[in-house]
Amino acid sequence: MKKERGFLSQKSRNMSCSEDLEYLQTLIQYQNGFLISKVMFAACELGVFDLLSKSEETLSAKAIAEELDTSLQGMERLLDACVGLKLLNIEVQKGEAFYGNTEISHLCLTKSSPKSQYHNLMYYSKTIYPCWHYLTDAVREGKNQSERAFGVSSNEIFEALYRSEEEMIKFMSGLNAIWSICGKDVIAAFDLTPFTMIYDLGGGAGALAQECLSLYPNCTVTIFDLPKVVETAKKHFVSSEGSRINFHEGDFFKDSIPEADLYILARILHDWTDEKCVQLLTKVQRACKTGGGVLLVETLLNEDKSGPLESQLYSLNMLVQTEGKERTSTEYSTLLSAAGFKEINIKKTGKLYDAILGRKC
Predict the structure, then answer these.
(1) Which stretches of 72-161 are assigned E, i.e. beta strand?
(2) Which of 1, 19, 147, 304 has a Cα-to-Cα distance from 137 of 20 to 30 A?
């Protein structure tokens, strides 16, 4: 199916999960994006989609407002806006409107769905949007806006994301939600069968590691992340019983990196300057077994940086949140070459994220 790039293109009932996620991203990012995404954030936070999912029948605005303890007039307007966004269905019975979830809201916006993007949307609402409020300042100053948005030093970029256990869980859940839909595309971009010992650097809650184990059952995957991230992952995301995911606590900039066949850096390098990227990749290259490699997962800009729009917007997001940026294929290849990796191959998946594999000869 050819993906239409126009805003709010007609939603096909047979869209794949990854296309559903792209549709949600489109709602967040395009014209009137602030108003549209705020509608989704409010409906999710109030529990509209969860309530309708649990109900065995459509509900009136009055019933929804009473159940969720909101004003009737406010809820009516919110529900109607969700209908306009094709997130709710509406039917009129005897002059009264009744509402129900559409397929996309049932799949992506209810907490109970395996493909739920609820936590990802809450991360946008509570963390990304406060930083984007200061986009003008970020452009003027050329640095992230953590201090203005959260009172956290701009030099400690992950302190804003991990400013409380609740925020950490929200961030990790959001990443898990993305990888549950897009993870297979990037892990399957190259044949990783030869790599039996894999380290997922900054692997967080383990969704991408799990995708790797599902596709390559003979490998072992160890998540290397900060101690408090590992603690949260074990407590809330990865069951200690029957899990084939291992953990290694540390800071990959400060601590040694163990030897492995393959290192996965998924949405890691875009957080950092070129200098820090080369520093990290050089450490990885030295630790890597001969014949091994590194798999980068990023959203790639066109060589002339004319698009895609999603990557351009993500790059602005890196400006307001981190010290990094989105890059072109050539720019990532240059970083890998500077760190000593050879045989660099790039696979564009046609989805949200692409894959780059560098080998150590």
Answers:
(1) 88-93, 96-101
(2) 304
Task: Report how far apart, in Å, the C-alpha atoms of 172 and of each of 4, 186, 189 are.
Answer: 30, 19, 24
Strand order in the sheet with 342-347: 245-249, 220-225, 197-201, 260-266, 288-298, 354-359, 342-347
pLDDT tens for the chain, 361 residues: list them.
334 334 344 444 455 666 777 777 666 655 567 889 999 999 999 999 999 999 989 999 999 999 999 999 999 999 999 999 999 999 999 999 999 999 999 999 999 998 899 988 998 998 899 999 999 999 999 999 999 999 988 788 788 778 888 888 888 988 888 888 889 999 999 999 999 999 999 999 999 999 999 999 999 999 999 999 999 999 999 876 667 899 999 999 999 999 999 999 999 999 999 999 999 999 999 999 999 999 999 999 999 999 998 999 999 999 999 999 999 999 999 999 999 999 999 999 988 899 999 999 9
Strand pairing partners for 246?
Answer: 222
Give which of 144, 190, 201, 233 is closest to 344, Cα–Cα.
Answer: 190
Instruction: Determine how β-strand 88-93 pairs with β-strand 220-225.
Output: unpaired
Element (H, E) at 157: helix 157-161
* 270 included as an active-site residue: yes
Q: Return the ∠ at Cα 48 (arms to 314 and 100), rounded to 5°.
A: 105
Q: Give the separation between CA 76 and CA 97, rounded to whole angstroms.
A: 9
Q: Which residue in 318, 294, 203, 211 sits closest to 250, CA to CA?
A: 203
- What b/e readout covers 123-160, taking b as 16+ CB neighbours within 10 angstroms? bbbebbbbbbebeeebeeeeebbbebbbebebeebbeb
Residue 175, burial from CB neighbour count under 10 angstroms (0-12, 13-18, 19+)? buried
253 half-sphere exposure, CB direction, 13 A CA radius: 11
Rounded to a whole number of angstroms, the CA Rg of the chain reads 21
| From 106, 236, 248, 270, active-site residue | 270
Of 87, 74, 166, 81, give the one whose Cα is nearest residue 127.
Answer: 166
pTM: 0.85
